[in-house]
Structure prediction request, 1015 residues.
Amino acid sequence: MNPLGENWRKLLLLRRRPQMESELEEEMRFHLEMQAEENRAEGLSDEEAAHAARRQFGNTARLGERSREAWEWPVLESWIQDARYALRGLRASPGFLAVAILSLALGIGVNVAVFSFVNVLFLRPLPGVPDPGSLVSVYPRNRASGGFTSCSYPEFEYYRDHNRTLSGVLAYLRIPMTLRAGGQAERIHGELVSPNYFTVLDVKPALGRLFTAGEAEAPGSGAVVVLSHGFWERRFGADPGVLGRSVRLGDGSFTIIGVAPRGYQGIVLDWYGPPSAWVPVTMYRQAVPPLAEVDALGSWGMQSYPLVARLRPGVSLEAAAADLAVISARLTSQRREAMGRSLAEYAETVPELFPASQARFWPGFRRNVFDFLALLSAVAGLVLLLAYVNVANLVVARAARRQREVAIRLSLGAGRVRLMRQWVTENLVLGGLGGLAALLVAAATAWFLGGFHQMFRAPVRLDIALDGRVLAFALILSAITGAALAVFPMRLASRLDLNRMLKSDTGTPGGTRLRAQNGLVAGQVALSVVLVVGAGLFVRTLANAYAADPTFRPEEVLLTDLDVASAGYDERRGGALYAQLLERVRALPGVRAAALVFVVPLGGRRGGTNVETGPDETGRRKKVQVGFNVVSPGYFRTVGIPVVRGRDFNASDRPGAAPVALINEEMARRLFPGREPLGVQFRVEWPPAGLVEVVGVVRDGRFRSYRSEIEPTVYLPLAQRFLRSMNLEVRGTGGVERLLPAVRRELAALDPDFPLTGAQTLAAHFDNALSQERLTASLLSGLGLLALALAAIGIYGMLSYATAQRTREIGVRMALGAAGGRVRRVVLGRLLRLIAIGLGVGMAAAYPLARLVRSRLFGVEPGDPLVYLAAAAVLIAAGLLAGYVPARRASRVDPVVALRCE
Amino acid sequence: MDRADIPPGTLEMLILKTIARFGRIHGYAIAKFIQQATGGVLQVEEGSLYPALQRMLVKGWVTAEWIPSGPKRRARTYRLTPAGRKQLTAEVSAFTRVVEAITRVIQPLEEAP
Prediction:
């Protein structure tokens, strides 16, 4: 009636079972005694009375058994019994158990780790928010470029006020802020948000309150800040007294009014970290001084706010998308009015909606993330297959060893079904143990992968948690693997020929097993080839990528952000800070050169501008798009890029002096073919437009990434083109990280409040930029090695077994005059044939797979013969190495001993 | 008179009914009562009472209590719980429905000439 209560009582009874046994026994004895007494009263003798009572009662042993069943879970307990038996059997062969669990843990673990990424990026609902299913993210697509953008604030307001399908829309803008409290400045990730931000999300504060309606209506009102739970703990020691305290954000003073709940970590995973503070966007001028000159609330061109909306109950995402598309069309005329026709066309967008849980990062990265996850999944799948083949090999050997035992049990009447159930259980237990160990491997793998910050080529911070979905995935994968392993012993069992088995003195039918093992070994070789070829292609890609960087010894260059804007500096003070800091840093012991640069090459960003040359001989002007960068004097010396003609910038290139520029070789070739570039003047459109004169030519280098074309590039001197966000690069001798404290000290001497962030070596910066390539190369290399090792173990095991099987045959051959060397050659020859089959299959599979990932390769073709030849050589060498020992053993068979065994 | 095997599933109902009748009763007495009440028509292996009682204990239909029965001996007695009482009512009405239905099927046959 109430199965829950019943199971609960059974559980409670679990510990009382011995007592219940004795009570039951006592109760039955009581019954028998009473009956016997009655029988005696009817005149039977003592003995007859007791006998009759027992006859009437029935079989006490069987009745006791049936009573006990009432306390148990019969099906479950017999499975547990099977599992216990299986465990005992597995423990008896610890070597097998260790290798099998290790292989399965690796195979399953890598897959679980990859799945945990899929889970975080696409499956897990937005944490910390009630009813996350009704939240949608709005990312407009630019009509002209097809790329994703965000919304401008006026667009947001229009969507907010005119839709019919949403119960609320919020806008936010993630932006670095400088927070000062208790005399300490710190750069944080903040968010400027529409005042209804928390209302739409329906988040409740952990402490204090969140923004209230009307608090931040007019620009400049609402000097309040809500802290994230993590930041509140880290920075303020979770002190409830922070409420009402004021902190400085940028140029303004803000009152802390509340703390967001612990579970809420912001909407997107981009930017490496969750937001630390939320400020009403109406206060943007105070909170974020670099935005002070921008009309962030009124500009139609500043399409920087991602929108998140909550669907009204019963409204589908498609209906809301249609609604917003209609509104967006109406926006066109407003946009034209505000921006003018030509600019408005650039800003025209069509809104696209995603479930908020599936848009945890910039949608423009989706393609790359999908592709990369697919690549990771494919590799992980391959590893599982390899682990599976390896364990299957062991399981087959194990089953074959036990065949005689099995035959005896069968002939003694054990049911085949029961036997098979035991095998299935054994393999499921194996899969389960592997799965458990796999969780460790998964955690380690996720941690390892998490170290590659930009592995999705998107600044995504991944918080990999083993939640229920991941555990369920691990469980299912373990069960499938376990069940698939059981196939081999089951097939052996179903083919058992009892007569032959019992008669044969060796006790094992070699044929079936050897065929299965040969197949598995060839399969292992084939899988290894695929991984080794993949490793070769990606290692070469990585090497080519590093070679594309023109920087000399980037590990000797220290790189930090130097953002005077967010520290609240204007041009005059900023320029002074730049100059003084450079002077101080250059004077430090161990520093060989130091410079400032706007865009650090190969970091995924580029600067761009248009230039227009003066009329050439034919009177034509050339107008071209070029890359541009702003650097301080000494930059080229710092990074080791030679100035090939003319001169570097120097102290004489001051604000008042003649505007100058350096260009790269490509620009000289393109714009001034066959002409002396030095002394030529051209017009730069931005930053501040003006004529500049070429004073030098530098060696070519790439900007955005190693894959981008070398583009014409113009370099402008920082002193003449002040920019408020630069990077400091310091070349030192020996471990440059040691220079960081000294640099900090020099900066603190100039401004104790100035935050210095993002310190790393230039080499680490490139490593980061090459995360995906490094990850792929090291993953495939590691797995390729693993595959080789597994294949070698498989070959060794197979050959040892095969030669042991054929000891007698070899003995006969040798007795008939075959030399040891010849035996060895025959054995190794057979092995080579097997390896050749594996190589053929593996290469046939590797080539189309490599073509699939062609877009990820760089400087190497999917069919690169060198890689394939090397893979073949490595595999043959590994195979012969593994096969040599058993082959030599075979060649040393003593015919006398072998034949005496008969 | 021939003896018949007890219809499957009715043993528990008989036990519950017997316990309900006596309020508190031990296993031996239940067996004797069923035997006497049915006039020996129903063939119950006496011992099969005990697995059934264990099942009912686990299901929470009855509770057990040991009481002294003579010197150095005690008997386990059983009582119905409210859940057991509900179960009894349900089983009796289900059984009655089945019996009535069967009776309706077989009656015309007996009346036929």
Q: What stands out?
A: Helices of chain B lie at 10-22, 27-37, 49-59, 82-111. Residues 11-106 of chain B form a domain with the Arc Repressor Mutant, subunit A fold (CATH 1.10.10.10).
